[in-house]
Design a protein that fits this description.
The complex is a heterodimer of chains A (328) and B (505).
Chain A (H helix, E strand, L loop, with lengths): L1 H18 L1 H6 L15 E5 L6 H17 L3 E5 L6 H7 L8 E7 L1 H4 L14 E16 L7 H10 L5 E5 L4 H13 L4 E5 L1 H10 L5 E5 H6 L4 E6 L24 E8 L5 H16 L1 H9 L3 E5 L4 H19 L4
Parallel strand pairs in A: 1-2, 1-3, 5-6, 5-7
Antiparallel strand pairs in A: 3-9, 4-7, 4-8, 4-9, 4-10
Chain B lengths: L1 H7 L4 H19 L5 H8 L8 H26 L10 H49 L2 H18 L4 H15 L2 E2 L6 E2 L13 H19 L16 H10 L1 H16 L5 H15 L11 H25 L5 H12 L13 H35 L2 H20 L2 H19 L4 H28 L2 H6 L2 H26 L1 H7 L2
Antiparallel strand pairs in B: 1-2
Helix pairs in contact in B: 1-14, 2-4, 2-14, 3-4, 3-13, 4-5, 4-12, 4-14, 5-9, 5-10, 5-12, 5-14, 6-7, 6-11, 6-17, 6-19, 7-17, 8-15, 8-16, 8-17, 10-11, 10-12, 11-12, 15-16
């Protein structure tokens, strides 16, 4: 009984915290010193809706954050505009280190290239990038395409006849498809859906012939789908039989990267401390196991290496964006 | 037998307690406009991390089912759907409350929600793998036709002028295009504002369009908000049961519609309750009384929306594809707990799954006593609170609720603006329901159309894609029926005025 009552009070406090999240944004910046940081709960804003991969990753970090710091990570959602609604407001939030926000690649690089989404890539003060879900070309178990070559042959035979679903336009999936088309010199029909869930539903229902998803999608639906190739450097431990694009001769690595940013005014000390905390979470063997079981590939880009990491990615995406006609 | 013993595990003291807490919390959250079932579930997910998986699921399921039911309170008592699923409950629930039958409406809503919830849970228990296959047969084209079908229901639903109903739907469709489009990524009607990039949030629009006009009217008229009930009537359970018995066919049909619609990812409780409402009205002998406080209207919508709870878990568990937004959150919680959805849910993890279904049944049954009790006080207090207190409290809730949806202050501005526009439009006979329907169905129709067109193009026949699939044709037939039926009815009424008068009891 004692245990349940704890659940109850905890539930109430999170509820109140969730409802009155306003106070944390609007309240005056508390005297922040890195020494005792964090001495109260930290708001972790996900600029997407609940239930997606960004949410699930944050949920997994939540538990270990509390183990490490004794403070809770309170997850909030600020969905809209494919993340733009959240990112455009981040720098106006309290910069005391108690508000952090998830950021995603390629989103934060691609969005500002097109029309003005209310933020620029440089304005976002990313402090840690922790993992990515490698792009993967997925088909159903009973698909006639046994290998990537089968699909390429079919696409060459009748250009545009191979339909491929994915999440959104000018998204990680759309880009993966564009890169694949130019590397393999084929033409497919890319069909954007609202979110990975809808894209995989279209595949499972035989509405499309293949899907651009991630290793995580394949892990979630492992009983019904298989991957033709994965866009990671090495084969994924969960799928030792699935070749990488590189092995097959297509120089393609990438996917959806996830990290966290603070409002620009956050002090260097606290930013570093946050970077350390999340690096430490990333080193936890139990956490690593859970992440890998879900299909993620862990990376570790701390605050010090962020600029170099972002510069490298920006260059990659710029090239693709040019091919896609997002920028001239 | 094994299944039964797993289900019985839901009766452990901890699980029972969690179900009670979950249902109570859910009812309260659902009853407050703006605090939706999705939010309630999302906020409580971290609390469940420390629990055994089946206990966590039971608590989340109980909150979810309680919230969907709780949404009817606000719909009945203040004409504002507490959740989008309760939109259609306002049609007859509020007129009932206005004439002093609010207690009866709440009792009916409770009984119907329990029936719907049980049917949904039963479908989840027995037919899950089969029904999940139906969900997969629905491609973009079918979603497009389904959305068109939903839009045609406006002609059946709009009180008074059908033309004004379609004008309202047009306004809703226009509103739905605001923001970054899913397909193409174009930015539409944002007028350079970053806030509008995210589009118009359905729930904030819902709160604005329904709640603000009610508040304005409350302030503008001197009369009491609701007719106070006669004294000493209790909860009118006997009367409610008699009405349910009379409407048993209606309840059964609505529960089946609710379950089936919920299986389709992306459709959800609002569409389920609207479809069953219009079906109830179409087949009823008292169809002219719908919209003026007909108990069958409340029975239809409340059975259907609670059936979506169990129904929505079917694709979530079998396919790993969430049927409704709260399911998406629960699916996330499952993955964090280390569960895989799919056939495993009914084999290796059968103990968890069946215990959860047992818990869902218990939570549904718990709604009966708890709902009747809470509902009775909700009705009494709403009736007895003076307007000077009621109006500011509701106004406060609308602002907080709208803000809380995605922590965006601009949503509050949109909510108030739409509320004022909605009030003006309502004075000219354009009601909020068609507008909200347009807003909800617009994106489904748009995405379905473009995806269907692209797929059709790739396969060489756009016409074949839209008109060559049996399921599409079935939905098209329903569209035609829905459009032509009112025309035929008017025609028949004109041709045979005497006969139709005699036919009416």
């Amino acid at each position: 009984m004692r245990q349940t009552s704890r659940f109850k009070t905890l539930g109430l406090s999170t509820l109140v915290a969730g409802m009155l999240g306003a106070s944390a944004f609007a309240g005056p910046a508390l005297a922040a010193d890195a020494e005792g940081y964090p001495d109260h709960n930290v708001q972790y804003i996900i600029p997407f809706g609940p239930g997606g991969e960004s949410d699930i990753s944050a949920r997994l970090q939540q538990q270990y954050f509390q183990e490490l710091t004794g403070q809770q990570l309170i997850i909030q959602y600020m969905a809209g505009g494919g993340g733009a609604v959240g990112w455009s407001q981040l720098n106006e939030m309290a910069s005391d280190g108690y508000t952090i926000m998830g950021t995603n690649l390629p989103h934060i690089i691609l969005k500002p290239m097109g029309k003005d989404p209310g933020f620029t890539t440089e304005e976002l003060k990313n402090f840690h990038y922790f993992h990515y879900s490698p792009d993967a070309l997925i088909v159903t178990n009973d698909s006639p395409y046994k290998t990537l070559d089968d699909l390429i042959a079919a696409a060459k035979k009748a250009p545009g006849s191979v339909t491929v679903s994915g999440s959104g336009t000018q998204s990680a999936n759309d880009i993966a498809n564009q890169r694949f088309e130019s590397l393999a010199d084929v033409k497919t029909t890319y069909i954007p859906f609202k979110g990975t869930g809808a894209a995989v539903t279209a595949l499972l229902g035989d509405q499309v012939k293949a899907e651009w998803g991630y290793t995580t999608t394949a892990a979630n639906h492992s009983d019904k789908v298989r991957m033709l190739a994965v866009a990671s450097e090495e084969r994924h431990p969960l799928f030792p039989d699935v070749p990488t694009f590189k092995e097959l001769g297509y120089d393609m690595t990438g996917g959806a990267y996830r990290g966290i940013a603070v409002p620009q005014g956050t002090s260097e000390e606290i930013t570093k401390k946050l970077s350390d905390i999340f690096s430490q979470i990333n080193q936890n063997p139990e956490f690593r196991q859970k992440m890998e079981d879900l299909g993620f590939v862990l990376i570790d880009v701390p605050y010090e290496e962020m600029d170099a990491f972002m510069a490298k990615r920006s260059k990659e995406y710029e090239q693709v964006a040019r091919e896609m006609g997002i920028i001239e | 037998m094994e299944t039964l013993s797993f289900m019985a595990a839901a009766l452990s003291p901890l699980n029972l307690l969690l179900a009670v807490i979950g249902v109570a919390a859910g009812i309260v959250i659902g009853a407050l406009p703006g605090l939706s079932a999705t939010m309630a579930v999302a906020v409580l997910v971290p609390v469940t991390f420390g629990m055994p998986p089946e206990a966590a699921l039971i608590m989340l399921g109980a909150i979810y089912t309680g919230a969907i039911y709780g949404g009817s309170y606000a719909a009945i008592l203040v004409n504002t759907p507490g959740t989008p699923s309760a939109i259609a409950t306002t049609f007859d629930g509020y007129p009932m409350a206005q004439r002093g039958d609010g207690d009866l409406a709440v009792t009916l809503s409770t009984l119907s929600s329990v029936i719907g919830g049980l049917v949904g849970a039963l479908a989840l228990l027995t037919l899950a793998p089969l029904l999940a296959q139906i969900a997969l047969r629905f491609g973009p084209v079918e979603y497009f036709w389904l959305a068109i079908f939903g839009l045609t229901l406006i002609s059946a639903l709009s009180e008074g002028s059908t033309l004004k109903g379609f004008i309202g739907a047009g306004v809703g469709l226009l509103l739905s295009t605001v923001g970054v489009s899913v397909i193409g990524g174009d930015i539409r009607y944002s007028f350079g504002s970053q806030f509008l990039l995210g589009g118009i949030e359905t729930i904030s629009a819902l709160i604005g369009l329904y709640c603000i006009p009610v508040l304005i009217d409350l302030v503008a008229t001197p009369s009491a908000h609701l007719q106070p009930p006669e004294k000493g009537r209790g909860i009118r359970l006997g009367e409610g049961l008699a009405l349910i018995w009379r409407g048993k066919l209606n309840a059964a049909r609505s529960a089946v519609i609710g379950t089936l619609v919920a299986i389709l990812p992306g459709a959800g409780g609002s569409i389920a309750s609207l479809v069953s409402y219009s079906e109830a009205r179409r087949t009823s002998k008292r169809s002219e009384r719908f919209g003026h406080g007909e108990p069958d209207g409340v029975i239809a919508t409340e059975t259907a929306n609670n059936a979506t709870v169990g129904g929505g878990f079917i694709p979530t568990f079998v396919l790993g594809i969430p049927g409704t937004p709260p399911d998406a959150v629960i699916l996330g919680a499952l993955l964090v707990q280390g569960f895989r959805t799919g056939p495993e849910m009914f084999t290796t993890n059968a103990s968890v799954t069946y215990t959860f279904i047992g818990g869902l049944v218990i939570a549904t049954l718990l709604m009966l006593p708890m709902g009747l009790l809470i509902g009775r006080y909700a009705f009494k207090s709403i009736v007895s609170i003076p307007k000077a207190l009621l109006v500011p409290s509701i106004a406060f809730m609308t602002v907080i609720g709208t803000y809380a949806i995605r922590n965006n202050p601009f949503d509050v501005v949109v909510m108030v603006a739409l509320g004022v526009i909605g009030w003006v439009l309502a004075r000219y006979g354009i009601k909020p329901s068609p507008i909200v329907l347009g807003l909800i169905l617009g994106p489904i129709a748009e995405q379905g159309f473009v995806q269907g067109y692209l797929i059709g193009n790739a396969s060489g026949s756009v016409f074949g894609a839209f008109f060559g699939r049996p399921l599409s044709l079935a939905i098209i037939a329903m569209v035609l029926l829905s459009v032509l039926y009112p025309v035929w009815r008017t025609y028949r009424a004109r041709r045979l005025p005497k006969e139709s008068e005699e036919a009416r009891p």
